Structures
1.
Amino acid sequence: MFGSSDDVLVEDEFLRDGLQNEARLLPLDDKLAFVRGLEAAGVRRIQLGSFVNPARVPQMADTDALFSAVERRPGVTYTALVLNMAGLERALAVAAPHLSISVSASESHSRANVGKPVDEALAHIAPVIGRALAAGVTVRAGIQSAFGCGFEGRVAPERVVAVAKTFDGLGVHEINLADTAGLGNPRQVHELTGAVRAAVRPDVRLSLHLHDTRGLGLANMVAGLQAGVRIFDAALGGLGGCPFIPAASGNIATEDAVFALEEMGFATGIDWQALAALSRRLEGLLERRLPGRMARIAAPDVAPNPAKG
Amino acid sequence: MFGSSDDVLVEDEFLRDGLQNEARLLPLDDKLAFVRGLEAAGVRRIQLGSFVNPARVPQMADTDALFSAVERRPGVTYTALVLNMAGLERALAVAAPHLSISVSASESHSRANVGKPVDEALAHIAPVIGRALAAGVTVRAGIQSAFGCGFEGRVAPERVVAVAKTFDGLGVHEINLADTAGLGNPRQVHELTGAVRAAVRPDVRLSLHLHDTRGLGLANMVAGLQAGVRIFDAALGGLGGCPFIPAASGNIATEDAVFALEEMGFATGIDWQALAALSRRLEGLLERRLPGRMARIAAPDVAPNPAKG
């Protein structure tokens, strides 16, 4: 089904894509404790936050401080999201070794998010990527809304491939296709990922950022695996949905993704039960249930689901 | 990814596999209203209940009455679960045209469920299947715990294939592989389904019964599609989890399965928005949120998930 079962890298993004939607600010010490918890569970790439306007996203205002405070462990990559040159300067000031630098493939999402159409946003981000690469940063270029957008629905695959080719031409190390609104389906993920794979240099790595809004997050991950992707974003507990929509789901849950990958024979190096325990700690802090499933399955006070007739 | 995108048959089982776990009994009139709702949404096969011991499963005690009361529409198949000859006689008495008759592939689950090891349970069910076929009933033979069991973990694939071959030899029309405890993963579903497909007559149809306990329900459905399966069980709202395990998930939600299938280009003949509305009615009756996702997405008072940065 998959050809080979290689290692898979799972990047946890709950500190960024999860917390940015929370009304409550998580104190720096709590963030640091979660970074240590993720490391202890075996997570090898951790997105600490984003270098964006603190007035717009107050939850991310301490990303600089967090980068400075984190003790960097060998074998773990610390990364963050950057959307413009001002953000990159802040990232370089704290010696971020790896960055996600992204644009949206959807015209209306791009205008809503950065006030520019896609072509202008790309022209604007190119020197940011160039400067990051020149500074020795490993650059992952991200394509938001690659599988559709809440404003305009499906985005034409050719548009996504064109953005990927532009990124490829800039010499980025990795290209990330993001299903920002959770609109993608497995067939689409398989086809679009294959089209991007065929359009860029063979040594550019591909990764997928998946949301579980319609319950297809893990199905889309499997479709990505079948298309050869071996890097997936996830968020502890499945954090990341809009807190104003009841039961709206966020990113695929890191513990669920790791469990599924290991069950299928892929090696992640991550202990999903340690993540499940960490996810329950996060639920305690946020005072609500998160959508991830394995935190329930692994709970010590909960018996395994009995087999039924 | 799938070869062809044929029609897919989705069998709704919420009236059986969903309601059998509920503490509250749904009155016959409510059950009839939901049957009409499922028909109106386009569902073409509806499992009305099970002919089992009413003392053990009181929620199913009115299955005979429901079969007699339902007005049978052309193009819709009404079915039920049967586990022994006494149940079959009741099913024949109400002229059930289609039945699921099943055993477990797991020794410990079989002993817990029917008090017999698998071989004895098979020997016991063979004349039931024979009598049903002789009476002109369309028989779907089910293999419970085909992907593992809460008591003993993974079940050897050869055991499942052996049970399937026995069923095949009896001349059944369809073989259903059931992930009763929600332990299956996509690789396993793909491999086991392929192995069963290769072991039985080409004109025996295969179907999958999937639970979403670990969030892999729809991913397993996609793996089944890739293995050529075109019949899937589901339950309105994703009902069917154990009510004593918080957040434990039941069957894949019919509305979510239909949405995903249609998004991938398969034709189900079902209107998922009508199902989502029906699912919200069921939530009203049961006075709790169900795990299905599309009932949230489609809710008229809830805006579509906005695209985020």
2.
Amino acid sequence: MKRTLNAESVKNIGKEIKVCGWVDSRRDHGGIVFLDLRDRTGLLQIVSSAKLSESIRNEYVLEVLGTVQERPEKMKNPNLETGSVELKASVIKILSQAHSLPFDLADLDLSLPTLLDNRPLVLRNEKIRAILKIEEGIVSAFRKSMESLDFTGFESPVIVPHNAEGGAEVFKIDYYGRNAYMAQSPQLYKQIMVTAFERVFTVNRVFRAEPSVTTRHLSEYVSLDAELGFIDSWEEIMDVCEKMFLDIFNELKKNCSKELKLLGAVLPEVRKIPRIKMREAQEIIFERTKRDNRKEPDLEPEDEKEICLWAKEKYGSEMVFITHYPVKKRPFYAQPDDKDPGYTLSFDLLFKGLEIVTGGQRINEYEKLLKNIKKWGNKPEQFSFYLQAFKYGMPPEGGFAVGLERVVKQVLGLSNVREASPFPRDMERIDERLSLGKKKAVRKKTSKKKK
Amino acid sequence: MKRTLNAESVKNIGKEIKVCGWVDSRRDHGGIVFLDLRDRTGLLQIVSSAKLSESIRNEYVLEVLGTVQERPEKMKNPNLETGSVELKASVIKILSQAHSLPFDLADLDLSLPTLLDNRPLVLRNEKIRAILKIEEGIVSAFRKSMESLDFTGFESPVIVPHNAEGGAEVFKIDYYGRNAYMAQSPQLYKQIMVTAFERVFTVNRVFRAEPSVTTRHLSEYVSLDAELGFIDSWEEIMDVCEKMFLDIFNELKKNCSKELKLLGAVLPEVRKIPRIKMREAQEIIFERTKRDNRKEPDLEPEDEKEICLWAKEKYGSEMVFITHYPVKKRPFYAQPDDKDPGYTLSFDLLFKGLEIVTGGQRINEYEKLLKNIKKWGNKPEQFSFYLQAFKYGMPPEGGFAVGLERVVKQVLGLSNVREASPFPRDMERIDERLSLGKKKAVRKKTSKKKK
């Protein structure tokens, strides 16, 4: 007999069907056992004799043959999609047994480290699954939005030949006995691809050897990138970003309403996102809090939270573009604003207090770019491949990068970005905890020094 | 004035428009200059006075204001989509200049290493762009097919804690002073995800420290992965793979017909793909060629070509599934065939002589898997995270992995898999050639030995 999915059971009253899934819970009532069977479409109540399900415990994987029957009116469960029916089991086949669970999967009131230690098991929880469904919904919606705006996708490489953007926050690879690095972003490649397709997007894992453990940083995260040529103005880049978020939230509304409801999340209304210069933001923050960060070259996390409160109060917007970061705080390729010397045509997008996007117009003039590469202390010969794109004609262009896990975190109000990644990596964890290895490494160093 | 795309010019006869793009070619005819302007939609002929385009050379980026006029009947170019019109330029603005080109972009009769050295420039060639459009078309079609079959996507990590599948072909990372590795496949993670969503897919960059340079191998490539639980039979995995290719080729027909035509590619008809055991294939190859590889545990590249010729002759199929590889040639997680001891429920899919997919049913029984991990010489403690998925109930499951660049290579009849990647990496190249670095590394080793 072909398998019927749980959600389809309600259409099969009186019929014999076969269902498959995991035992989500077991309740014994005298000689009768109720099993909630979980499959990818939801739960279905199985009614069986005590004998038939004698050895069955939570998370056992079953194949159940039985007859769908309508539940008596007072026994209907309005909280369950299949709550109007139940399956009276005639045959139960155990497809896979489960060891005793270390904790109750329905009630995950545990510390985050414990949850992450047990990630493969925890992924079975319906709320965790909902988070990951929404994450994937955003990836799909991003791709769809980009394609509708005539962007062409491409696959950007992870292995790169140089530590191009400088800094210590890059992972080194042993590449056939040479050094290579893991890309911190697809930046240089997406700019090159503008010369092929004008408008490009790419979804990649990117890597930051982030030396601290915060609720906002991962060592490996998903970056949603867009880059577009022939812009009339750098504001066009923000227009595309705005349109993209509108599309993403509309798609989520359409495809993930069940998951959003389960997690109690309300999607933001994206209309026109306010755009203000960083210096204006600093003035506003000073006025509101008397905290004077007006001479800082960047916004601190607490500033980002404050300016989001302001945007919400003044414009009813959960999001705000902060523009014109100082030249010195941006990479060599950031286009300076000729009308505002010392500042760049760049932006961050803040969402409920957290930066989720960074972008801007790029320098598209070959000589100017070459000069900046030198000025930033980089070796031009390490950029000769990238520079080809500019040497042979590059239109005015720019783009942005979205941190996927941060968007998920903010949409759902999660307290830690790790919850938004199926398998988060940080300084202390790659699936399992790394503390032992770390101690070892430190010990080694010390002993060397002593010698 | 808002920009008009080249392809839209034919709808604007008699009107003044603004177009933007790169100069694909320049032809001087006395006082008149013809420029073919290239944008993402195609070429448009610009007619200008010699004075107006005096300094303009190939690959200059222009913004051109002018009037669209119908070409005289005998001047129409049926090979060009906009060949019935031309733009009489009134204003030409240079957005970006280009240095002299090292070669003619229209005629890339150069060695592959030279083409790859100049990849950012070469990407502007229409045939190269067509290859990459088709590659992206396959990624999109894969995702669409998977979603239609109720698979849920997820993002699989690149950084992994152990060299899990063993072997030297793995890249090592310096992870905060510890060792970590770059994933050779999302295998363990997609199996874990089956317990969350039953049917999952994932698109990832994967890494092989392939120590040789061949036309079929890359150090970094794109893997299209699927994994599904609750299979009735391992043949169901091949059914899904077959359906997926049918979907992909149908989508390509719909969305990339222009590119396929340009490259002279004919898509294969996917109906029922023949399925034969490896040993049967070896017998057939022996009968056809008298080459006796019947005792080999795997097919050699020349065997793969021969059996594809056979499948084409006998079944009219460009593809053939080879099944039942020996236990010893497959990873620890491959499900053995109880009815055929020593062989696994595994398959490769060959397409025009090349392996493009590998897959099979996995061991879903915890104790059996644990035993195999030990038998394969692995440390079970390195698999404790993965094993959680099995310890707490895993249905019968399996899946497959598609090598994206190989599919592109075979669909288009390219001679080297490098041509199917925008930025291919191998032992000798990460964008630029690495030969110098290699020599250095070798020299270092030698001098150490001498000491």
